[in-house]
Amino acid sequence: MSESTIGSTPLLIVLSGPSGVGKDAILTSLRDRLSNCHFTVTVTTRPRRPKEQDGVDYFFISPERFRDMIARGELLEYAQVYGNWYGVPKEQVRQALSKGMDVMIKADVQGAATLKKSVPQAVFIFLAPASLRELESRLRDRQTESQEALAHRLAVATEEMKQLDKFDYMVVNADGQMERAIDQIEAIVTAEKCRVQPKASKSTCNLVT
Amino acid sequence: MSESTIGSTPLLIVLSGPSGVGKDAILTSLRDRLSNCHFTVTVTTRPRRPKEQDGVDYFFISPERFRDMIARGELLEYAQVYGNWYGVPKEQVRQALSKGMDVMIKADVQGAATLKKSVPQAVFIFLAPASLRELESRLRDRQTESQEALAHRLAVATEEMKQLDKFDYMVVNADGQMERAIDQIEAIVTAEKCRVQPKASKSTCNLVT
Prior knowledge:
Rossmann fold
């Protein structure tokens, strides 16, 4: 009956969604709201963008180091996206969970599918744009890629939308309504902590080995 | 992908828990927070308490009228608790759901078990005291019953706690922390509305016939 028997189970949360939907901006805000949550920093071989910080936005590593991490089984999931490699270091997740902290993993849709197999107890949230038109407009504003790359991203996004039914929750990040999306994700975390039979469990710690 | 395809499914929520845990006080506050939600008014044969209003807190009806409603199949669930009858009128639930409104049903633990069978798509929330000692102290403060009746309620509450695993969520209503419990219930409603595959569905309307 005591809350501690239920509330103490750390959650593993996977936030996914198409490229350009706004995962990074939302995670930045969530960092201030979810105090007992570790936000995993992904390792990647892709070049750093102007405003990005190594160790904060990503760990930028060489393809050699990335191959090393795969060989040593140090990644919870990894995938090649648009020619670059991305991976989630197990050690970060394991350490945070063992301290009783929740863990938030950012993953592209392909990565989320892999995680669904390795850690099905995780809570899977799909961040969706209000429309493909909004997504296109955001990707254009980013101005980091060619017309061709953009068309490719949109085609991929259209395919990714079809994966929605593999997720537990969908949160729409509509233009100008990011606060609403953040509130909803926070509510999902609060609700999952009230679950009588949480998806995540102590065994999550053991699975991430 | 549009939010309307998911957010439009009305939720059927059952708030239950032992007698004296604070269901009524919490529902009063939730009324202001959940704008698109109908709070069912239970019919009962028990005598009205001094501060209670007919049609607001309960519909106070005669045992004859209650038997009539049972005979006509007008109650979604009904049960005898401490010698009095309580029931949830179907018509209220049906009408609200058909308007696209969420419906919140207050039910004792016995009633929730019945609802679990008739409307399994509902979201079941167990409101728990932080401890049996807190529950006892609240029941004493109420001063509406004898020492014997109080002892009986506590024995029943202890049994009811064992039903927890039949519920989806547990929210603890600790003394002095009611706001926290209300926030958690509101978060559960928000989260359930983001579910990709909601427990409740359009068919809920059909089930309540």
